């Protein structure tokens, strides 16, 4: 017998954007851990991001997937693109996303591309300004997509 909600979670595609090794200095020596940044989406306008830390990579990814499912947001897309130009700023990161005609594809790099793909946007042009930090870039892109109105 399947648990409630299990079927819903399986329709989402999970992508690991970044894994970092972090350490903390303690009296007994260095404490190593890993942080995992994961983006989940169903390519139909629902997208979420999760960031979690753990002693090993696998459990860090599992924790961040769980966190991403808790932080799902919906994005309005029209004809496989976005309705209008949108710009957002999050910390040091700034993103500019413009709609593109059919057949253009996604013109975006790195973390922004992953977020747009999983949100279901197939034709758009995006430029990341400011920060190279993937965590900030992902959160900034989601903030920009939330600003969309139809």
Coarse structural class: alpha+beta
Average pLDDT number: 90
Helix amount, in percent?
A: 25-40%
Which sheet architecture does the biggest sheet show? 4 strands, antiparallel
Radius of gyration using CA atoms only: 17 Å
Task: Write down the overall geometry.
Answer: elongated
End-to-end Cα distance: 41 Å
CATH hierarchy, class of the largest domain = Alpha Beta
Q: Count structural domains.
A: 2
Low-confidence runs (pLDDT<50, min 5 residues)?
A: none
Overview of this structure, please?
The chain is α+β, with helices and mostly antiparallel strands. It is 28% helix and 40% strand. It is built from 4 helices and 8 strands, in the order αβββαββββαβα. The chain has helices spanning 6-10, 57-70, 110-119, 134-146; strands at 13-26, 29-41, 46-54, 72-74, 86-90, 93-99, 106-107, 124-130. A 4-stranded antiparallel sheet has the order 1-2-3-4, with helices on both faces. A hairpin with a 2-residue loop joins strand 1 (13-26) and strand 2 (29-41). Helix 3 runs parallel beside helix 4. It is elongated.
